[in-house]
Design brief:
The chain is an alpha+beta fold. The chain has five helices and four strands, in the order ααβαβαβαβ. Helix 3 crosses helix 4. Residues 5-33 have low confidence and may be disordered.
């Protein structure tokens, strides 16, 4: 027990010693400190700090508790950046007809949109599209790939300067 605890402390100390602190360079009056990470309110910010997608079961468009938690974070992020407009794209795996998958993708995108609206995001800020099975994120004909392709992906589409 004590050996495990000692090992854990050693690992934390090693990680702390290796941590890099960003350096700032002043090149004159009013020089700003260098920043790292995605720009606030950007697509990269959404992906890195909130999560941009929710996943669905086979032939379903029902949101799970995990999906709702992701959409709750998206709604809070959108409240923080009221000028941002988004596109929610519904996607399917490659099984089923083109027509069926386009309709299912639309139901998935709309399920995510309706949840965001219920959380206070203005409907005018959210557009939806269905790509059906035409834009897979994972290649392969197995359950792991199919599960990754059954999703709704939220992406930043632009900003409304008035925040309306």
């Amino acid at each position: 027990m004590n050996l495990k605890l000692l090992g854990a402390f050693a690992a934390v100390a090693l990680l702390a010693a290796c941590a890099n602190k960003p350096t700032t360079t002043a090149s004159g009056a009013g020089a700003a400190a260098a920043t790292s990470g995605p720009a606030p309110g950007s697509e990269q910010d959404l992906v890195a700090n909130v999560g941009d997608r929710v996943f669905y079961a086979f032939n379903k468009s029902i949101l799970t508790a995990t999906d709702k938690a992701t959409l709750d974070r998206q709604a809070a992020w959108l409240a923080k950046y009221p000028q941002v407009q988004v596109l929610v794209a519904g996607n399917c795996d490659d099984r089923g007809t083109e027509e069926y998958n386009l309709a299912l993708g639309a139901r998935r995108a709309n399920a995510a949109k309706e949840y965001l609206i219920a959380k206070g995001v203005a409907a005018s800020r959210i557009k939806t599209i269905s790509y059906g099975k035409d834009r897979p994120v994972a290649q392969g004909d197995n359950e792991q790939a199919w599960a990754q392709n059954r999703n709704a992906i939220t992406s930043v589409q632009g900003s409304n300067p008035q925040g309306n």
